[in-house]
Design brief:
There is one protein chain. By secondary structure, the chain is mostly beta strands. Helices cover 12% and strands 34% of the residues. It contains four helices and 13 strands. The strands form two sheets. The chain has a seven-stranded mixed sheet with strand order 3-2-7-8-4-6-5. It starts with 33 loop residues before the first strand and ends in an 11-residue tail after the last strand.
């Protein structure tokens, strides 16, 4: 079975309309949106193009129970509720696990790490999701675990592998942290410190408005997108957590492909057609390094960056259309 940018065709492919996916009428900037100020110090986990490194036969990493937003942000689409695996710096990987009922699993051929160009065949496997993972892994939003990769043969720099054994590590004597709880606390803290009304954000948002719209006023709505990426750094033996917040506003109209809609302002967006116009906003990312005990080892934030993006009418192709 060929492993490519999409999961095998026998799976139900879905268009992941999640918080991190950029829909055709989304106000949030796609890669390449025009910067209005100095760019962020590039976070290592947020990326628009997938990037992978080889995995050894046994590796410690983070299992993200619901990783579909991260996959969608890189234009990778698969089954609803797909879980992801992260170890080191790179994109989340899809992975397969043994089906509870082997008769309902799939046959899968994957590339393995050694020898070069070798493959391995697996039977009775299914894509990893919260429902198909071992019960000991299903709690929370993410878990630290030791994973056997492709029967111990490892994986080249591919986006898919088979987890033939999973051992939970967090909440253990060697790794006392509760990773889901640590992530939840960090997310709550970051949301309280960076939001549309926080110090500096409103001022930066007004600066972005002037640069994007001049004297024109936004139509709204004011929207906030919060994203998280998390991984385990094997050499440093610590968690890397990145939290990115984007606040967006804009001046929009609605159309259905030929002319702007004259629907009443209170109409549902689906009734008015697709939103287009000029979107602008601010973005900031916080980076945390966390010990196996759950202690914050370091905390840093990028400067607030300003951006704008033109979303063309629905009968025109161009940036902002996905």
């Amino acid at each position: 079975m060929d492993i490519s940018r999409r999961l095998p065709s026998i799976l139900a492919l879905v268009s992941a309309a999640t918080c991190a996916s950029v829909e055709a009428h989304s106000p949030f900037p796609p890669p390449g949106a025009a910067a209005l100020s100095s760019a962020d110090r590039a976070p290592v986990l947020f990326r628009s193009v997938p990037q992978f490194a080889p995995l050894p036969g046994k590796v410690v990493g983070v299992i993200v129970l619901d990783a579909q937003d991260a996959f969608a942000a890189e234009e990778r689409f698969g089954p609803a509720g797909a879980s992801g695996f992260a170890s080191g710096v790179g994109s989340y990987r899809w992975f397969y696990v043994a089906a509870e009922d082997p008769g309902k699993g799939d046959d899968l051929t994957v590339n393995v790490g050694s020898p070069k160009d070798a493959v391995a065949d697996f039977s009775g496997v299914v894509p990893a999701t919260r429902r198909t993972l071992p019960r000991a892994i299903r709690e929370g939003v993410c878990r630290l675990a030791e994973v056997e990769v492709n029967g111990g043969k490892g994986s080249p720099a591919d986006e898919v592998f088979v987890a033939t054994r999973i051992v939970p590590l967090d909440r253990s004597p060697e790794y006392p942290l509760d990773l889901s709880e640590v992530v939840a606390r960090a997310r709550t803290d970051w949301a309280a410190r960076f939001h549309p009304d926080s110090e500096g954000v409103a001022r930066s948002l007004e600066e972005a408005r002037r640069a994007a719209l001049g004297d024109a006023k936004p139509t709204g709505p004011l929207e906030t997108l919060r994203e998280i990426r998390v991984t385990w750094l094997p050499r440093e033996r610590k968690i890397l957590l990145e939290l990115r917040t984007t606040v967006a506003n804009g001046r929009y109209a609605f159309g259905k492909g030929t002319a702007p809609s004259d629907a009443a302002p209170g109409s549902k967006p689906d009734d008015r057609g697709r939103r287009y116009g000029t979107s602008y906003g601010v973005r900031r990312t916080e980076v945390l390094e966390i010990s196996p005990r759950g202690e914050i080892l370091s905390r840093s934030s990028t400067p607030i960056s300003l951006w704008k993006e033109t979303i063309p009418p629905p009968n025109q192709a161009g940036p902002g259309i996905r």
